[in-house]
Amino acid sequence: MEQQTLNELLITLEEEGVVLDREKIEHESSSDAALYSNLAVKILSIFGGLIGSFFMVLFILALGLYDSTIGLMLMGILLFGLGIFMSRKEKSIFLDTINISMWLTGVGMIGFGCIDIMGDAAIALAMIGLGSITFFLSEKFLLRFLAVLLICTSMVGFILENEWYNGIHLIIAGTVLKMTYLHLYESDVISRNKFFNRSFSPLRLALVFSLIGLLFLVGKVGRMNGLEFNYHWVSSLVIIAAILFSIYKIMESLDIEKSTKLFLMGLVGVIFIPTIFSPFIAGAILILILNYHIGHRTGIAIGVIALIYSVSQYYYDLNLTLLHKSGVLVLSGILFLCAYYLFLKKLSSHEQN
């Protein structure tokens, strides 16, 4: 929350007679801003953690611990625990690299240690457990963000190992539903308690990245590796339903007439019919709508990049001549522009009334 907005909110509450500890609230707000802002620093911290983990692994290999499954597991558990412990004690973002290095190395060592005593499916379940422990016990943005990515990746690994390829659509559906709920009901979630407030941002951002990764896997990666992902329309229908629900809730907050809501939602549904077998496009648009609704600039940028890629890939994959492909793109563009014009016209007429 921006400082000016926070001050206005505090002033409004104080005028209504609400007793507040302004100093403590402002301190918590500045602390959260330091943890959740500056995406570039977070990205550098992650890369720094990866580099640090690499050198830490080299050191462990030099000690010869890889010859002992028990030694590898014990060292991994120790590093994993220290990473979480330090994240609860240290608030400086500059030491995130150390936490991430220890955590990544610990998770990796536990995973390699499990190879001799577990199957790949059991290792995936163990990684889901480690990710869940991290998410609930850590208090760092980056560790919670990485924990959600670890959980999602491990779930995908579990279904691939068991060759339940179409189970990927269940993971996509769950990711879409959780992401939509978090964006549309942000105030309800963050106001529950301190845990929900602090875990909201990393969870929301991780779900966005997870959805993009899942849709990329189902599309490009699946075709390149011969993975039998079928029923793409299932994921598309779930995403389109989430888009329609999101648009309905947004229009509901604007107090738009019911007939206008139905017209616009019907128009949106028609627009997405050609993309029913390409869920990436609908997923990118859902990310854009949700993040634009809450004003999250990072999410908007991610959505724009994902949309550009998904449309380009959709155009490339069309089994048509170049002339027909151009015609499809032109007609789609005209349809979107008409929808945008009608949407603005309906909103303007509503505001005048």
Summarize the structure.
By secondary structure, this protein is mostly helical. The protein is built from 15 helices and no strands.
Description:
With 353 residues, this protein is mainly α. It folds into 3 domains: 1-37; 40-163, no CATH class; 166-353, no CATH class. It is built from 15 helices and no strands. The chain has helices spanning 3-15, 22-36, 39-63, 69-89, 96-114, 120-137, 141-161, 168-184, 186-190, 194-225, 232-253, 258-271, 279-294, 297-317, 322-352. Helix 4 packs antiparallel against helix 5 (96-114) and helix 13 (279-294) runs antiparallel to helix 14 (297-317). It is globular and about 65 Å long. It starts with a helix and ends with a helix.
Tally of individual helices = 15
Helix fraction bin: over 70%
- Please describe the biggest sheet, giving its number of strands, its sense, and whether it closes into a barrel: none
Q: Give unreliable regions as ranges.
A: none
Shape, per Cα inertia axes: globular
Cα(first) to Cα(last) distance is 33 Å
> Strand-residue fraction?
under 5%
Quaternary organization: single chain
Strand pairing plus helix content: what structural class? mainly alpha
As a whole number of angstroms, the C-alpha radius of gyration is 23 Å
The structural domain count equals: 3
- Count of DSSP E strands? 0
Overall residue-averaged pLDDT value? 76
What's the order of the H and E elements? HHHHHHHHHHHHHHH
